[in-house]
Amino acid sequence: MKLAKNFPIPFPVAKFLPFTE
Q1: Residues 19, 5: contact at Cβ < 8 Å?
Q2: Assessment of whether the complete model's pTM goes beyond 0.85
């Protein structure tokens, strides 16, 4: 899931959510 690509995350939620992949 490239959710991170769909919406810009203003906080390091990528560390908690594996959406960065």
Answers
A1: no
A2: no
